[in-house]
Amino acid sequence: MKNMSIKLGDHTLKQSDCEPHLGGVLATSLKASKEYILERIKSCQHMCYAAQSLGSSIIPVTPTILSKIYQKACIPKLCYAMEIVQFSEELTSELEEFHKKNAKLFQGLSSNTANVGALKTIGWNSIKSYIEIMKMMFLWRLLLLPMSSWYKQIVIRLVEGHSRGCNQSSGPIQSIVEVCQKYELMNIILAAMHTGCYEMVQDLKKIIISKVKDHDEMESRVNTMMYRSLQLVDIKDWRSVGWWCFAKKYPWQVNKCRVIVRLLLNSYRLGTVVCPLCMCGQTNDIVHILFQCQAIECKRKVLLAEIYDVAPGALRADLEEMSMSVKTEYFLNALKCDFICEWTDLYNAVIRFVILLYKEYESLCTLR
């Protein structure tokens, strides 16, 4: 009871709503748990800022390197022991906001950029998916304990009760069972419990990661299609955009790559007004700027010729047959393929084409 006085020898034990325990947190309320998690988020944010400070304004730390630091240092610290923490919707939102904020921070994107777009271009899944993987792996490791273990016997009874709907009590095991049901893994778990034949941890981990990532990426694809501003984003392959791989090899090009990613995600909010430079009556979206606006036609022809000069023969033929919108999507998504080192001249030509045309257009609009 809350007001019960508990003594250990001559000492009265102090009651607390929230206490750290073995790297996790034991809390009697969601409010106390939230306060502890917010402190952990604050600590992880300092790590992110420290990682960014390793670079300079001219050659900043590339998003690929920052992403590795985040995945290997920040995420384990942030999510440690999260598999046994009771989550509210509010607390989950706090973690997701922190995750999305860093995706934008590392890529130099503005706060008005669509969250799902920022996660896509850096190749991240949601923070919820990381925690769900941890929950299922935690349950499996408990089940791999010897049958003489009390922990394993208790877990088996709880899992069986929850799977049949007999046990209505809330707690970490119930939360884990719900996650397993979500990804249709209960049959594997129940079969292993009844037969005593358990798969190796690494084998099951591959199955779990595959299912969780497929589900999360499908959900993200659907969300991306709902944004008009993200209509040029390539959603077929949920990996980081190729420009960050290019910037990793040529870090002095990071700032230019950032501009292209901002244009891809429409962080500049183009396409909201009619083009003030030509009389065509079309909106000033990125397709219009790169391939339609007559005010910069001369410069466009010169820069496009540079791309055709360095492009392989078959690729050049494909480019000439592409529509303007498809060609724009192709350029902004770093040629829609893995980074190819032998195409460095082609990537540089595309960067010059996109950056110089956009800056020329902005300059003319400012003078008008």
Task: Tell me what the structure shows.
- Helix 5 (127-143) packs antiparallel against helix 9.
- The protein has 368 residues and is mainly alpha-helical.
- The strands form 2 sheets. It has a two-stranded antiparallel sheet. A two-stranded antiparallel ribbon has the order 3-4.
- The model has no long low-confidence stretch (mean pLDDT 88).
- The radius of gyration is 26 Å and the shape is elongated.
- The protein has helices at 30-52, 63-79, 89-107, 115-122, 127-143, 150-164, 172-182, 186-195, 201-225, 242-249, 254-264, 286-291, 297-310, 313-321, 324-332, 344-367, and strands at 7-8, 11-12, 18-21, 24-27.
Brief sketch in words of this structure:
This protein has 16 helices and 4 strands. With 368 residues, the protein is mostly helical. A hairpin with a 2-residue loop joins strand 3 and strand 4.
